[in-house]
Amino acid sequence: MNVIGAALVLVVTAQSGVALRALAEQVIERLGAAGGRAAIVQIERAGGRAAVETALRQAEREGGEALAARAAAVLSDAGAPALGVLAKSPARALAALDGLSGPALRSGVAAIERQPSILSLPTELAGRAVTAEARLPGVGATIVESLGDDGARVAAELTESQGVSLARWSKDVASLPAKEKTSVIAALEKRPGVILDYLDRHPGVLVGGAIVAGAAVVEMTALVSGQEGPVSAAVRGGTKIADEALSTPLAFTITLAGIAAVALGVFYVLPTVLKRWRRASRAV
């Protein structure tokens, strides 16, 4: 690079620095106007004007003046919490917050602050995780991280208590074979309260292997239709006994094996024995 080229780079850099300082000053002024002294104190504790400039500079490196301007708008609205959210990658954070403003934006910033792992998701899914986490604080992002688009769709219809329940089972649902997983998601979309209540009462059914999971899906499908599932009907003899029979993978498997043994005896073994007995009687 010649002397003239180097001089031009210095001029452009200096102009950029001046522009960023002016932009940082605007952020501080807007925060003061909207949030008063409390907002200024918060931003000062987070690093003050220097921290704001650093965030804006990083945004400019990643996406030019347009991204720096978007970062300034988010900082002006969300204040100090946004500094931490923008620190690692302004581009990813701002993409996840795209389209949000006002209270929704502040909720989104708080969501990423609680669950930074959101920013490791693909951009579109990160935006859905922000929405879910803002709606279901502490659990929304977990649901989307485990179940992807399906989780985002289901989470949009859940109450907070249902969200807590699904977050508890989301990894187990995600690990099911594709067919069973699709069935459980469909059941959750239709009657989330009923299905989550079933999972909470019978916590072993999703981790007991393919046979147990398959039987659980049959149960849930029946529940969605407002009917009693075959396994539940078979153990209805006593509430306590039924709950214990379905409470662990081993107990659930033993219950199914017992039902299968009875069915085998009634429909196959007994007819076969009777048929051979009749043949023997005729021979005599």
Summarize the structure.
The chain has 284 residues and is mainly alpha-helical. Helices cover 82% and strands 0% of the residues.
Protein traits:
284 residues, mainly alpha, 14 helices, 0% strand, elongated
Explain the overall architecture.
This protein is mainly alpha-helical. It has 3 domains: 1-114, no CATH class; 115-174, no CATH class; 176-284, no CATH class. The protein contains 14 helices and no strands. The longest helix is centred in the N-terminal third of the chain and has 43 residues, at 3-45.
What's the topology here?
Blueprint: H1 3-45, H2 48-78, H3 80-87, H4 90-96, H5 102-114, H6 123-135, H7 140-155, H8 160-174, H9 178-190, H10 192-201, H11 209-224, H12 230-234, H13 239-245, H14 249-283
Helix pairs in contact: 1-2, 2-3, 3-5, 5-6, 6-7, 7-8, 8-10, 9-10, 9-11, 11-14
Poorly predicted residue ranges:
1-14
Approximately what portion of the residues adopt beta-strand conformation? Answer: under 5%
- Structural class call reads mainly alpha
Q: Over the alpha carbons, how many angstroms does the gyration radius reach? A: 30 Å
**Largest pleated sheet:** none
Q: Quick check: average pLDDT?
A: 79
Number of domains: 3
Shape: elongated
Kindly state the number of beta strands. 0
The H-and-E topology, N to C, reads as HHHHHHHHHHHHHH
Q: Give the fraction of residues assigned to helices.
A: over 70%
Distance between termini?
Answer: 113 Å
Total count of helical runs of at least 4 residues: 14
